[in-house]
Design a protein that fits this description.
By secondary structure, the protein is of the alpha+beta class. The protein is 34% helix and 34% strand. It contains 5 helices and 6 strands. The chain has helices spanning 2-19, 23-30, 47-58, 70-77, 130-134; strands at residues 61-65, 82-87, 91-104, 109-120, 122-129, 142-147. Strands 1-6-2-3-4-5 form a 6-stranded antiparallel sheet, sandwiched between helices. Strand 2 (82-87) and strand 3 form a beta hairpin. The radius of gyration is 18 Å and the shape is globular. The N and C termini lie far apart (60 Å). Mean pLDDT is 90; it is low at 5-19.
Length: 148
């Protein structure tokens, strides 16, 4: 009986460990079809920082986002196939619906709907309006990458 319990416990740990994707695999899957990565190009511990480097070289256009240019940048982004925004090395978001938007008091413009990941140790998935994913305007570097 004890050996069966031990076997089940070890099996459960093994299966749950295999079910969790590494952070770099999550980011690679999130950007699939938009950004292509070479083997080992994404850092497991800081995949969003690695993503920034690759996206900057592959994007049609890159914009440093500020409160002052957010409205204009969102309008421009609507003309592209894909818009991905990163905040520092801890947040990545993709606009999924420009038609679904909400007025953001802190950004002073309408923010579209999106999804993304916030890294606090692990990557946490979030689907919401963009202002709720990327936070309020502050001194953190926010980059918008536009892809045709």
């Amino acid at each position: 009986m004890r050996s069966i319990f031990t076997f089940l416990w070890i099996s459960l740990i093994t299966v749950s460990g295999m079910a969790q994707q590494s952070k770099d695999a999550v980011i690679k899957e999130f950007a699939a079809g938009v950004v292509s990565f070479e083997e080992g190009e994404l850092n497991e511990h800081s995949p969003i920082a690695s993503f920034n480097k690759v996206a900057y070289s592959q994007a049609e256009k890159s914009i440093v986002i500020t409160k002052e240019n957010m409205a204009q940048s969102i309008t421009e982004a609507a003309g592209y196939k894909t818009c991905i925004i990163t905040v520092g090395t801890h947040t990545i978001a993709k606009v999924t619906n420009f038609g679904k938007s909400v007025m953001s008091g802190s950004w002073g413009c309408k923010m579209p709907y999106g999804q993304g990941y916030i890294q606090k140790g692990t990557l946490s998935f979030k689907e919401d309006f963009l202002n709720n994913i990327i936070g309020i305007p502050d001194t953190q570097r926010r980059m918008m990458y536009l892809f045709k």
